[in-house]
Amino acid sequence: MGGGKDSASKRQNLKTIDKAEHSHALVPAAEDMVIDAPIISSYNDRIRPALDAVDKLRRLMVMKEGIQLPTIVVVGDQSSGKSSVLESLAGINLPRGQGICTRVPLIMRLENQANLKSEFSLEFNGKLVQSDEADIANAIYHATEEIAGHGKGISKIPLTLVVKKKGVPDLTMVDLPGITRVPVHGQPEDIYEQIADIIMEYIRPEESIILNVLSATVDFPTCESIRMSQQVDKTGERTLAVVTKADKAPEGLLEKVTADDVNIGLGYVCVRNRIGDESYEEARKEEARLFESHSLLSKIDKSMVGIPVLAQKLVQIQANSIARNLPEIVRKINEKLNASASELNRMPKTVSSVAEAMTSFMRMIGFVKESLRKILLRGEFDEYPDNKDMHCTARLVEMLNQYSNKMQKCTESDNKKNFLVEEIAILEECSGINLPNFLPRNAFIVMLQKKVDGILHMSVDFIEKVWNYIEGVVIGVLMKHSENYYQLQISVRRAGNNLIAKIKKRSVDRVMEMVQMEKLTDYTCDPDYLDKCNNLNALRENFMRDVLVNHLRSSAVDLQGFGHIEVDHLRQQFPVLNQAFDLKMRMTAYWKIVLKRMVDSMALHLQFNVQNLVNNDMEEEMVNELIGPQGGGIERMLGDSPSVALKREKLSKSVQKLTESKEVLAQMMEKMVA
Ligand code: GDP
Ligand code: MG
């Protein structure tokens, strides 16, 4: 052990905890390590503030805020020797033995101190219990009973054991219940799932170091704990194996740990724990002697045996892990703090007086009006960049175009099918005792009325569809701006629905009126009508010749503006054909005007009503609903809704916790610099 006195090379050794570089001469003797712990403590002076900070964060439960802390998690099958390993590291007695002893996560925090008088305390459920070395096993037993009940059940609520003792390595580790496939008497049926759940929760985060405790007496690949750690750490880069009970199964142990069948990235350490009533010091001596002199065990490299080596490796791994994770932790805490603080800021102030309620209400109405003006009138959608439904001006034009297309394509607008058949029928019905070369006006009006009736439903459908759409938009905007006044939302929604229902009814009436007007008379000042009419009528002579003279040649003729039309059925209709053609051409020219007028006035009507809605009607309806004689009363805005109150409380707690965490980290930085 000559090298053991060379502190420079020891330090060097600590920096490079590479299996290959470890030579047996560099490993300090057990006495050095644990009784005086010179290397570990000098090293720990530097890592201690960081470890303290991480432990404080753990106690603040920042993990609940979604911030993972570097943690050494002890896992192993039942009776693999987990508690014994922790005992050996801490130099104390833990509840140990057959059956399930560790029933809650036990966070064990070891602190090296100069003072010879050791201190022991337990923290759980917000309580702090002082204890002493002789009684600690008992105290843990009782605390476990308190947390997890008297039976054999387990619990997720952790128990923290703080051990301040001269010579212990500065380490914080979590001991978890051992994995068991078969429930013992008195255990719940799903004990395996419960335990697996807890273990997974602790070992899944990338920040966790897995300390896998394996008994030398078993075949490693069959261990449940190996199976589980491999699920979350395939390459084993954050898994360290401790092989216990080396004394019980020395045969083949060297081969097992060198073959590394189970992918342990951080290496193996073989140990022999305290047996029976041995004292802690006796146990260490016995272990040292065993690995020094046993014919098989002495062949294992000294960098892979003994509790002191394990302690040293763990301290090193822990330091690396903290150093690696700390910047990210600081960043995450700041990020979460900022997010929570600004969310809290954005929450509405609690409304506590009627005047305040009034102000908030009027402000809300103001916001709603501005939003609606933007999306419905001005076509600005910066508030809803990705929600196409809220890009209203575009959607309204889209609907208007659809309406127009539908009108152009409907049967009423189809002037090719059954060419002149309807015209002939109507003319026959409208004939009277008068000259045949005057087109009876009545025939034109009858035909017009039939056609207009045919498009009535399209116009009503359209206007209803538009208002349904606007209703969705208005309600959406109302809900968005009233989300902080939960008591208001019901009234506001009702007001919105009522308002749109009223407007819709008015609008439908107006559309019906427009249609009625079209039926009443035929009028336009549009010169296009006459032009078109004349142009179309100019086709008549050719058409008549095609139908009547060239009839032997073909059953269909080409008519400019109409295309290829069937005319066979017209050949017997000679007497009224001229008039029918005239009627058709006038109607064709006029129908274009009618459709144009419908679509145009529909567009203007809509724009006008939407403008009114935003500028006048909405405010009026809201004020009536809330403050009017039949209204629900502005007092309803007072006080927080349960959900808002809960959110506010949660946020302020989180802000408080994160602020404390930030403080902890700032203090740590100061200490490290000092
Ligand atoms: P846990 O269930 O994983 O916490 O296992 P325990 O620490 O309670 O140990 C189970 C049993 O194995 C106990 O009886 C211990 O005394 C025994 N044991 C643990 N480590 C060793 C060891 O290194 N050598 C021997 N011979 N027995 C050990
Ligand atoms: Mg145990």
Automatic annotation (TrEMBL):
<feature type="domain" description="Dynamin-type G">
    <location>
        <begin position="66"/>
        <end position="327"/>
    </location>
</feature>
<dbReference type="Pfam" id="PF00350">
    <property type="entry name" value="Dynamin_N"/>
</dbReference>
<keyword id="KW-0342">GTP-binding</keyword>
<dbReference type="GO" id="GO:0016020">
    <property type="term" value="C:membrane"/>
</dbReference>
<feature type="domain" description="GED">
    <location>
        <begin position="580"/>
        <end position="673"/>
    </location>
</feature>
<dbReference type="InterPro" id="IPR027417">
    <property type="entry name" value="P-loop_NTPase"/>
</dbReference>
<dbReference type="GO" id="GO:0008017">
    <property type="term" value="F:microtubule binding"/>
</dbReference>
<dbReference type="GO" id="GO:0005525">
    <property type="term" value="F:GTP binding"/>
</dbReference>
<protein>
    <submittedName>
        <fullName>Dynamin_N domain-containing protein/Dynamin_M domain-containing protein/GED domain-containing protein</fullName>
    </submittedName>
</protein>
<dbReference type="InterPro" id="IPR003130">
    <property type="entry name" value="GED"/>
</dbReference>
<keyword id="KW-0505">Motor protein</keyword>
<keyword id="KW-0547">Nucleotide-binding</keyword>
<dbReference type="GO" id="GO:0005874">
    <property type="term" value="C:microtubule"/>
</dbReference>
<dbReference type="InterPro" id="IPR022812">
    <property type="entry name" value="Dynamin"/>
</dbReference>
<dbReference type="InterPro" id="IPR045063">
    <property type="entry name" value="Dynamin_N"/>
</dbReference>
<dbReference type="GO" id="GO:0005737">
    <property type="term" value="C:cytoplasm"/>
</dbReference>
<dbReference type="Pfam" id="PF01031">
    <property type="entry name" value="Dynamin_M"/>
</dbReference>
<dbReference type="InterPro" id="IPR030381">
    <property type="entry name" value="G_DYNAMIN_dom"/>
</dbReference>
<dbReference type="InterPro" id="IPR000375">
    <property type="entry name" value="Dynamin_stalk"/>
</dbReference>
<dbReference type="InterPro" id="IPR001401">
    <property type="entry name" value="Dynamin_GTPase"/>
</dbReference>
<dbReference type="InterPro" id="IPR020850">
    <property type="entry name" value="GED_dom"/>
</dbReference>
<dbReference type="Pfam" id="PF02212">
    <property type="entry name" value="GED"/>
</dbReference>
<dbReference type="GO" id="GO:0003924">
    <property type="term" value="F:GTPase activity"/>
</dbReference>
